[in-house]
Amino acid sequence: MSVLWGVSFDGTPLSGVVVEFLKTAKRLAARGHRVHLDLGYDIKADKGAFFRPYRDEAGLLPDWVVLDRVDGVETVRGYDREFVERVLAEVVQREAGAALRPELDRIAGELADRITATWERLGVTMVMVENGTLPENPAYTEGLYRAIDRYGARHRLGRFVFWRDHDLMWQSEPGIAKYGRFPYRATPAPRNSPYIHYFALHEEAKARTLEWVPGLRNLDVLPNTFPIDTAKIDARNAGFRRDHGIPEDVPLLARITRIIPQKRVDRDLHLLVLLPDAWLFVAGDVEEAPAEYTRLTELAGRLGVRDRVVFGGWLTPYDTATPGRYSVRDLLAHASVVSFLTSYDYESYGNPVSEAIASGTPYVTSGYELYNAVYGTAGFQAPVLDIRARDLPDAAFAREVAELITDEGKRAEVVRANQELGRARFGTQVVDDLVDRLYPPPMGAGTRLSVVLPVYNEAANLRSVLRTLYDQRGLDRESYEVVLVDNNSTDDTVALAREFAAAHPDLPVHVIHEPEQGVSCARRAGMDFAAVRSRNRPDTDPAQRFYLVSADADCRVDVHWLSELLEAMETTKAAIGVCDYYYNADHFTGRPRLWDAIQRTLRCRAVTFSLFGGFPDGKGFAVERDAYERAGGIEVFYQLQDGKFVNHLSDDWDFGIKVASGGDAITYAPRSRVEINPRRVDHAIDEVITGRAYGSGGTIVMRDIRPSAPAVSADLTEAEALQAWEFSIKDFTPKNTILPVLLTPALLEDDAVIGFFGADLAARLGERIAEIRDEMRVVDFTPIHAYKTPSYRLYLEFADELFACLRKHVGEDIGHPPPLPSCFADVPKERFAEFVHYYCEDRESGEAHNYFGNGGVF
């Protein structure tokens, strides 16, 4: 069994830090991880629990969590609460304490020994560190780093440590410099480690961390996350108000906090004075800071609101069926408003604010230092107390709060807008996707192929596409899986995918999310996800090849698609296998001119792919995993469009170029067939005809070709058919007759290739390719450009001869080359090749790109 060891540096059984651990760990527990949690009593000195045995803390946590501690930590000589407090005061705050450093180093070493021994005893496979960078205890932090390095190396683990920092030095009581001042020389800084993935809660914290530790890698932003679901009053929590003595019909302010001075609960009491009908419920441990609790109760008495304040103690962070035990969600179901009038230097994300947003409850907040970084600039709506201008709520602020309580229309609009933003920024799917990506579920030993399916709003097609993948013949279902990559769909795509997976448990279907928009990004995410998981298959022969397969969410695959593709890859041992593609003729009934243009293109493709192997197309290809990784995976290129960077669409071709230029072979699998969705023609026919199917001016980007109107059913005119064919063949010929031999000149010595070109043309092509490769050897290292330009040049120089080859081997109806661009009309014959060079190199205007069809191939 997989074992997750969690350690919180918070030293308390319930806090925002512990709650976030539980949310993330729950995802892993559902996959079969046994979860152990060390609450950090033996780490943090100021919570008064150092070495204190656990008592009833387990009752506050889900039953799938085992409370645990490091074995024998109390036996480390000299390690106690007094030592930790002394290190914090002398070493961290004053950057002095030289006499303590040898002792600190020794203790760190002994702590590392005990941490490692505990992990060995349990068989730990993953570690989650919560708040470990906050220098409450540098000896323990340093010991933890040493244990991670030692344990990871011993067991050959990857990034088995999930290290999340909620609070950092510049966020935690910066006014008194509790943790020293920048650059924090006495604090154990995050370090580049092959075993650790770091997470900051927002971009500002990430930027400050990198300012402190330039060059730190594997640091990403992961916000605190929350289930976006309106909290409801139901049979389980209907008695919440009654059990706490709160009238059913009064407005209720909810405060979810530790009852300590920094949280400024006194502001809520002053607000209550200005809201004479409202009550306040404070959910927090009244025993943590008894003096503060006493101060607050006395203040409530002096203000005359004591009878409207309930100090309700801890609430569980999860729903519970225990009689008399309530959760935070129960409180929120009854609350009118959540209050978070905390101090300016509040150190973290503001969990109560997000809890309120997620539950559909309006909130009010102080303008604490990080409020805008996390919520304000994102557009979340709430009354904000400007505590830089006034320390306590005034009448104007109270009127804003009262309006939010009484104006149902405004309240509903605030809830709607906040939940919409919250779902995108910190819905639980955010962390679920990340955990699935970094710590993916295991892959079966018999799995040989992983089919990657990028999707964006494909609810209309998805069921039929998944059905064709399910109905594959010629191989067992346990030999392949589907990785569906959701690229920010706003329709029912993901729900339908999960529904299909639940109904077909014999075919593994994994759903992951790629937030960066673009099919290139989604394809890369899916293939990287599958490649990592494939290396953890149990009892697998190291010599067995594993394949990553690309599919398209709007195309259907034939029943033998995968088995034929696998057979071709296993037989040839090629790095890439390319499928055959076709359209259903029935869809083009009554459109013979359009159908003829399509068929001529596909006939040319069948001939040249049989000779050269072709290039991968996202609609269907396979790549052997090791070759994928040798080539650096799918690389996403960017272009400028209207002043913004956009993904280049040709990631599949770019990838094929990288693989072929690296010396790996590509094979054509003609019996592995994919039916292309006719919408690619129907809803872009005008652009296909004019060669603008995917862009213009040298920019190739994805456009949405899902139908928004009835499909065009009329045939092309003769002029349109000629234009469509010319763009198609101009797009096709440089890519499929020139580019393969440009990448692999040795092909020109193959008998079949010589038979296609003829011995004389093959020899002259080889000589010219050698000249151009030498001429351009240091011009451009971007594959799609480094090879597109010379392919265009060679086409223009040899066009008549190339078309003669196509007429001979494909059919006379291929015809002759389309007319040259008009700019060549006045170019002397003897300077033709020279001006071809200038024309094809002119990337500023994109003229050559537009001439060659710009994606006009069918």
UniProtKB/TrEMBL annotation:
<keyword id="KW-0328">Glycosyltransferase</keyword>
<feature type="domain" description="Glycosyltransferase 2-like">
    <location>
        <begin position="450"/>
        <end position="611"/>
    </location>
</feature>
<protein>
    <submittedName>
        <fullName>Glycosyltransferase</fullName>
        <ecNumber>2.4.-.-</ecNumber>
    </submittedName>
</protein>
<dbReference type="Pfam" id="PF00535">
    <property type="entry name" value="Glycos_transf_2"/>
</dbReference>
<dbReference type="GO" id="GO:0016757">
    <property type="term" value="F:glycosyltransferase activity"/>
</dbReference>
<feature type="domain" description="Glycosyl transferase family 1">
    <location>
        <begin position="241"/>
        <end position="417"/>
    </location>
</feature>
<keyword id="KW-0808">Transferase</keyword>
<dbReference type="InterPro" id="IPR001296">
    <property type="entry name" value="Glyco_trans_1"/>
</dbReference>
<dbReference type="InterPro" id="IPR029044">
    <property type="entry name" value="Nucleotide-diphossugar_trans"/>
</dbReference>
<dbReference type="InterPro" id="IPR001173">
    <property type="entry name" value="Glyco_trans_2-like"/>
</dbReference>
<dbReference type="Pfam" id="PF00534">
    <property type="entry name" value="Glycos_transf_1"/>
</dbReference>
<dbReference type="InterPro" id="IPR050834">
    <property type="entry name" value="Glycosyltransf_2"/>
</dbReference>
